[in-house]
Amino acid sequence: MSDSKPLTLSEWFHQETKYDRRTINLLPRPDFDGQPMPWKQWHSRHPVDLVPYLPFEDFPLGPAEDQEPLDPRSLGDEVRAISRTLFFTCGATGFQQTPEGTQIFRAAPSAGALYPTEVMVVLREIEGLKDGLYAYSVPHHQLVLLYEGVEMEEVAAACWDDPAFEDAKMCVVLTGLWQRSRWRYHDRAYRRILLDTGHVLGNLVHAAGHEGYQAKIRTRFIDSRLQSLLFLDDAEEGVLALVPLVPWQSAGIEVRDEEPLSLKASTGSPLTNPPAEDPIVALQRAGELLENSSSQALAMKPALAVQQQNEFALQGTMADLSGEFCSISVQRRSTRQFTGAPIEVSDLGRILDFSHRFLRASSTQLLGAGPLLDVHCITQRVKGIDSGHWLYCCEKHRLILRKAGDHRRSLQEYCLGQDLAGDAAAAVIYSAPLTEAVRLLGDRVYRDLHLDSGFLGHQINLGSMRLNTGVSGIAGFFDDSLGKFLGLPEGHIVTYITLIGDPMPSG
After folding, report:
1. What CATH number is attached to the domain comprising 423?
2. DSSP state of 163
3. Which of 67, 104, 173, 272 has the greatest number of CB atoms lying within 10 Å of its CB?
């Protein structure tokens, strides 16, 4: 660590978890025999069976032989919404037989199919169910009552009595389990856990909306209160997001006004020495918010500088998924190989428009630090636009040229040599001014930058699937080389890459 320029914990962690050509092969090989289960083993004699509410016949999941689920005739109509919301957010949508058994794939993408995001639900005033905290059991698609004493008012109190909870009968709680990804990705797993949780949030917004609810994502809360309320060991697991679901008729519209977005800030003190404790746990704790945490204004920042004002006005737009979200969620799989054929610039425009409407000033507030993100677009095989490195301006739906030329070989090299990157038609890359962000909002902002990047990256995934276009997220890349190629100033970081292209037919 440099004595002349001490780093904050976020900066140190990001530096320590970068991939570099010279050192990446020195990382220990993962112990596949020690891989954790991709879900917690919840069991109850009398669970809430959610399978009957799904729009499928002969669904392979269901209660175990020794279970006697609650009688569905005694349950209220909201249970149907709970079932479908959870299933299309993160339920089991695919099954593959392997020598080790049945592998379950889910509605939201996850690096290495490790699924480090755990889901719980706080319920109140649901007919036939006790108020309290329930675990979502993926293998059986059911709810298991964990703690009857957990009340919605206590969760709201951990969010400084946020009014979003007042009309909510259900609140989805997303936590990250560190070891579930770290056994394979080492400390860089924290980045992937946040991105994966962003994917889950990206589905939840649509799944809840399909059932008549508005998902109000909250990533700022008094951490110690929630960890204690949910009986979580912060050395193993941490709360990452709370999402009260509010009926649309009482939800209201949350829009950004002309004032800068105000966010609760944690500390961000420079380090004198590397932390003695586990780096992931240290960073999660460094970002904790307290009862008396102050708020800081987060103004919209200008985009990165451009050398020439060469703009391209995009025409294609996509307002929504046209009611196809549920089928997209079930069919969704990350593309493993692109053909190398081009896509149309109008389709690229539709995907960018759909994915980034959440960044517009008039959008519903779902992102914690979205205004800090820059959106880069590398066009490689897109009909109707020159190849190059562009910045995407979501407010004007325009691309601004930053570096002309064919960058296919470079992008493939930066993405750890993956052919997928070289064969892609386009890439969308998020970057952010980490040093400036931590100065404003403390180490908590590291979570938001990656959660938001995962959320937006998943919108690209959904928009691409809507157009039958191939898509795959990339969280492994040579950080410094890619940052230099993008022309990022010192203190800026790359958070996520999403590749778009013509998919190779399966089978």
Report:
1. 3.40.109.10
2. G
3. 173
Is 290 a domain residue?
no
Is the residue at 439 inside a domain?
A: yes
Range of the domain at 203: 35-251
In the beta sheet, which residues pair with residue 247?
A: 213
Identify whether 506 is part of a domain. Answer: no
Q: What is the per-residue pLDDT for 203?
A: 97
Q: Are residues 191 and 336 in the same domain?
A: no
Q: What angle do CA 245, 82, 197 make, to 5 degrees?
A: 65
Report CA-CA distances (Å) from 430 to 193, 371, 372, 455, 457.
17, 12, 10, 11, 9
Task: Rounding to the nearest 10 degrees, give the CA dihedral for residues 409, 412, 413, 418.
Answer: -140
For 360, counting Cβ atoms within 10 Å of its Cβ (0-12 exposed, 13-18 middle, 19+ buried), the class is middle
pLDDT tens track for 326-339: 999 999 889 999 99
The CA angle 424-426-428, to the nearest 5 degrees, is: 120
Any domain includes 4: no
Region of residue 62 (phi > 0: left; psi between -120 and 50: alpha; otherwise: beta):
left
For 24, the token pair is 């990446």
Measured at the CA of 458, the angle between CA 118 and CA 156, to 5 degrees, comes to: 45
Rounded to whole angstroms, what are the CA distances from 224 to 194, 212, 220, 303? Answer: 19, 32, 12, 36
Which of residues 232, 251, 270 is at a domain's end? 251
Q: Mind listing the pLDDT tens digit for each residue in 149-192? A: 899 999 999 999 999 999 999 999 999 999 999 999 999 999 99
- In whole angstroms, give the CA distance from residue 10 to residue 270: 10
Strands 382-383 and 343-344: parallel
113-151 pLDDT, tens digit per residue, is 999 999 999 999 999 999 999 999 999 999 999 999 899
Output the DSSP codes for 246-264.
EEHHHH---B--SSPEEEE
Residue 394: DSSP 8-state: T
Rounded CA gap, 432 and 371, in Å?
9
